[in-house]
Amino acid sequence: MNLELQLLGAQLRAIAEEMGAVLVRSSFSANIKERRDCSTAIFDDRGRMVTQAEHIPVHLGAMPEAVAAARELAPAPGEVVILNDPYAGGTHLPDVTLVARLDLGFAVARAHWADVGSPEPGSMPARSRRLDDEGIVIPPTRLDDGLARTLTARMRNPGERLGDLRAQLAALHLAHRRLGELCAHHGRHRVRAAMDELLSYSERVVRGAIAALPDGTWSARDVIEAPEGLLALEAAVTVHGDEVTIDFAGSAPQHDGNLNCPLAVTRSACYFVVRCLTEPDLPACGGAFAPVCVVAPPGSLLNATSPAAVAAGNVETSSRVVDVVFAALGQALPVPAQGQGTMNNVAFGNERFSYYETIAGGQGACPDADGPSGVHVAMSNTLSTPAEALELAYPIRVERHALRLGSGGRGEHRGGDGVVRELRVLEDCRCSLIADRQVRSPAGRAGGLPGAPGRIMLNGRQVPAKATLDLRANDLLRIETPGGGGFGEPPTAPPTGSG
Amino acid sequence: MGKRQGGSGDVASTYHRPVTILGIDVGGTFTDAVLVGDDGTVVTAKLPTRTPQAEVIVAAARAVAGDRPLGRFTLGTTLATNTLLERRGARTAFVATEGFEHLLHVRRQTRAHLYRLCSPHPEPVVALERCYGVRERMGPDGVLVPLDLDHLPPLDGVEAVAVTLLFSFRDPSHEQALARELRRRHPHLHVVASHEIAPEFREYERASTTAVDAYLGPPVARALAGLEAACRRHHLAAPLVFRSSGGVVTLAEAAAHPATILLSGPAAGAMGAARIARACGYPMALAIDMGGTSTDVSLIRDGLPERAPERTVGGLPVRLPTIDVHTIGAGGGSIVWRDRGGALRIGPESAGAAPGPACYGNGGTRPTLTDANLLLGRLPAELPGGIHLDPAAAERAMAGLEPAEVVAVAEAEMLRALRVVSVERGQDPRACALVAFGGAGPLHACALAEALGIQTVLVPETAGVLSALGLAASDERRDSVRSVVRPLAQAGPLPAAGEADLRYRGQSFELTVPIQPGLAEAFHRLHEQRYGYADRDREIELVAVRWADTTPGPYVALRASALRQVRGPAVVELDGSTAWVGPGWSGTSDAHGTLVLERR
Fold first, then answer.
1. Is residue B284 part of a domain?
2. Would residue B57 count as lying in a domain?
3. What pLDDT, on a 0 to 100 scale, did the predictor assign at position A66?
4. Long-range contacts for B310-314 (Cβ within 8 Å, ≥24 apart)?
5. How many domains are contained in chain B?
6. Which of A66, A361, B58, B340 is the most exposed place for a label (fewest CB within 10 A)?
7. pLDDT confidence tier of residue B17, bands split at 50, 70 and 90
8. In percent, how much of chain A has pLDDT > 90?
């Protein structure tokens, strides 16, 4: 690899990371600042993703559509396009994406806002049926001050939403400045050559790793728990030479609720699995996904069409896509047992406040290691909100935050334990719950036992995991998150000190 | 006796006239000693580190000081760091608010690696079975559940206890009562309560700091007591110990809270660099300290190293004021390799002290940065300490690699680190001088300065032992912090000097601003500098206030051992270090012995 281009490429990556740091540190939504539910990236003139600073994997493959949608408006250098429409470059409505045309290429900043004007707090309604039940749909539009104000005026806490927008714009301005300096110093054509080289480098590395996998086609099936019953996901994964094709034919049709994934989200989940099984340390770059082809029938759960609702697809169904693709490849390769397979989304709010969080659980055990306890698995990796930070800002008290001991599946390697979190609300408010793996346990692998399924209790009585509730002051919500599956036959005697 | 915020120099000092001072820095591989005589002359020594550290400390002191009376003796040590990284701390229990007993194990719920799913976090210092809850609850506005002292955990078989109750940063009364009761019932236990060491909000980070401090307490106290006894036997005064926050305290204070000395060595290097930069008249500087396995960089602003309120040590958060040293895993001994995509990479694997780089001739066969530097003619035939360098061995190890490319890759990593502490913190590097030290820092300084647009490189004569020099003359310093978490406008009086952690109400990350008149405007300006925008209509929240009581250290004016004049390209051999003066660079050494290099 040409050394000059390698070093320039490292500087491009550094720009994307610095954009991410600016966005996280100066934003207002808990989802961005505490949980880092955001990503920043640099694209080339042709709309290919050169480098991405990722904090959570769900944005991995979902950004190129945003740039493609913005390019259709042919923005001039310096212009910024805003969007959140899942069917025109977005993922789900709370993910608001800004795309800036630079002198060379594009800069993108995507972040999960605390509210985008849904009737339910947190804009993560449990029972939405159409996209516009979930908040304001922003088609790709040139952004100006007037638009920023009219859009945010329709959301809760418009001042904070404007603050989030400014943080995203600050990240884009930074990219503009840094890339300008790089071009001035090295010349535009060398920077462009470095972009090409980053793309072909990552493609080369991933193709090499896929070529090392056995050829063949393997299928697997799993389910997601819709309120009205189980929905099937089917994946056929074909490894052929240095390419992978993942076909979801046979999966459930589009859901009349909000468990639907736009194809971009399905792709992200597939890229995640390929990355785990090939080159986990490779910096994120569009080239790495060139050898991965994802197909799903239009109008199905995993390639939904407008105006299907999608709030839970991004957070829950995407986790199940990971499980089913791992399961298919697990017939040919060593893969981990299933992790909690849900993000346990909880949102509270009333006229005065809006709060949203996701809760960790058990990771499935790996062929060579126990699964970690109390961590986010698969498509999320957001931080928890400290009890002290939460209670200083919201009418909520954390009464318990502990490991759910013994919930991980036994095995030669143990699945990780889930957690128990008890939240007492101090005011009347609405509460949205979106969680999964309450019926079907996370499966063990190679003889390992399954993890315990999750459970949500309100004042001691179990409640549905996809529901919107009216809470009264002093109500206590207890969320028990699933444990991960074990790997390999458990030892014959129960292990001592299993906690 | 004068007290003031940070720094030292020409203010009142407890030292009324120049005295003989001794600084010893015990590093991972070598122990450095620097003696500065009352006339400014400098004597140095470098000994291999061994355990117990007391022996090598006494030996190093003897090597440079002989029987000369000392006006001051200060110590930097890896004792606490090694005890933590090697998990040789006390058997410790953790006591928290009921419902939060697993705090150290639940962490902040993120996994260790995004795509390596079972990659473990570092093991907490307290095992799950020794984590207990007590019935009590403090809320943001006071007591919710009274403290129940009738049902306390047994605490059998432990040597130390860490106590972290919710909201103790706001109201420590429950924690105080619990700690008092535990100390009464178990007089031999080492008890640390979180408000005593890190009274700041965010319970996981506070608990982690408290647990680390309790865990280190007993063994570090024993080791420091052993050192004190050894010093007494050898008629040496007990040393002052250098803290991560950039000043010294007594041995007893260090032993009481060893978490405050975790970054003793790197912090001392940054202090030494700041001293050099100040003496040369550069209040703004970047410091680069490159050793065998890693490189530390830091920013010096207005003559003092920048401080950070928190950092991780061995993957565990430690929320204590620390000199803000940014470390990368690339040093002279770092292994060079090609990855699967054909890109040239350096580190983090290192040839270490044994076998060392291939050119040391001790059996190393894999290429390192030092081998590349040798082949480029930037190292002498023999290193200080009597290591003969073998170009043929370097050539064999480097087969197929271009030395200039290896150096370019390493310098790109260092450049990235230097940009993190300057450009990304809103500081233009072009306004800084670059202070280069450590065994290998001065080899790369000119190239790095060129890439950053820096005009002046400072290479101290004591480049190989600058950390020891930095701590020898440092101030005494005791840090305090008070958690506030209230609007700035309602915060009440602040200390006259110190630092405030501020943020716009609604944000989660604070910016640290020196306390000054017009604090709010200073915050807006810093926010604009860091993040590209300010919002003067938005309410500002004061999260914490930090201040320090300092007593200035002795006044030190170094005297150069020799005057040097160089014109690049040239190799300059220094005490424990080698400088490469690139083409286009030249300079002379000043009266303190610092080589001041400028671009022609």
1. no
2. no
3. 95
4. B310/B205, B311/B263, B313/B81, B313/B84, B313/B85, B313/B212, B313/B262, B313/B263, B314/B84, B314/B85, B314/B122
5. 2
6. B340
7. low
8. 80
Q: Give the structural domain span for B513.
A: 476-551
**Last residue of a domain, which of B184, B216, B248?**
B216
Is B116 touching A (CB cutoff 8 A)?
Answer: yes
pLDDT digits (tens, 9 = 90+) for A230-285: 999 999 999 999 999 999 999 999 999 999 999 999 999 999 999 999 999 888 89
Q: Distances in Å between the alpha carbon of A309 and those of A203, A353, B31, B222, B480?
A: 34, 24, 65, 64, 52
Beta strands B160-164 and B92-97, pairing class: parallel
- Between positions 336 and 395 of B, the ones with CB within 8 A of A are 339-344
Q: Cβ of B419 and A376 within 8 Å?
A: no
- Kindly give the pairing relationship between strand B304-305 and strand B295-301: antiparallel
pLDDT at B177: 98
Task: Tell me the DSSP string of B119-182.
Answer: PPPPPPSS-GGGEEEES-EEETTEEEE---TTS----TT-SEEEEE-TTTTT-THHHHHHHHHH
Cα dihedral B265/B266/B270/B273 (nearest 10)? 70
For residue B487, how many other CB atoms are within 10 A of its CB? 12
Judge whether residue B164 has pLDDT over 70: yes
A496 pLDDT band, cuts 50/70/90, is low
Count of CB atoms situated within 10 Å of the CB of A308:
24
> In chain A, positions 269-288, which contact chain B (CB-CB < 8 Å)?
272, 275-276, 279-281
**DSSP character for B71?**
S
DSSP-assigned beta bridge partners for residue B507: B505
Q: Which of B159, B192, B216 is the last residue of a domain?
A: B216
Asked, for residue B439, whether it belongs to a domain, the answer is: no
- The answer to whether B151 contacts chain A (CB < 8 Å) is no
Direct distance between the N- and C-terminal alpha carbons of chain B, in angstroms, rounded to an integer: 45
CB contact under 8 Å between B531 and A370, yes or no, is no
B132 in Cβ contact with B95 (< 8 Å)? yes
Please identify which residue in the block is written with the tokens 């930070």.
A389
- The model's pLDDT over B47-102, given as tens digits with 9 standing for 90+, comes to 888 888 999 999 999 999 998 889 899 999 989 998 998 999 999 999 999 999 99
B592 touches chain A (CB under 8 A): no
Question: Helices A158-186 & A188-211, crossing angle to 10 degrees?
Answer: 100
With a CB-CB cutoff of 8 Å, which residues 42-61 of chain A face chain B? Answer: 54, 56-57
What is the pLDDT at residue B301? Answer: 93
* Segments in B495-542 forming alpha helices (H): 519-531
Closest CA to A421 of A360, A331, A490, A332: A360
pLDDT at residue A498 in the model: 43
Instruction: State mean pLDDT over A293-316.
Output: 96
Q: Which of B108, B96, B97, B545 is nearest to B316 (CA)?
A: B108
B430 touches chain A (CB under 8 A): no
Distance from CA of B190 to the nearest CA of A (A): 26
Q: Quote the minimal CA–CA distance from B563 to chain A in Å.
A: 37
**Secondary structure of B403-459 as H, E, C letters:** HHHHHHHHHHHHHHHHHHHCHHHCCCHHHCEEEEECCCHHHHHHHHHHHHCCCEEEE
- Give the count of Cβ contacts less than 8 A between chain A and B: 186
Which of A174, A369, A402 minimises the CB distance to B118? A369
Confidence (pLDDT) at B347:
86
Q: Is residue B299 part of a domain?
A: no
Q: So what's the pLDDT on residue B10?
A: 36
- Mean pLDDT, rounded, for B504-520: 87
Using CB atoms, pick whichever of B106, B169, B344 lies closest to residue A374: B106
Judge: A402–B416 Cβ closer than 8 Å, yes or no. Answer: no
Q: Which of A33, A371, A403 sits opposite B507 (nearest CB)?
A: A33
B12 — pLDDT class (breaks 50, 70, 90): very low
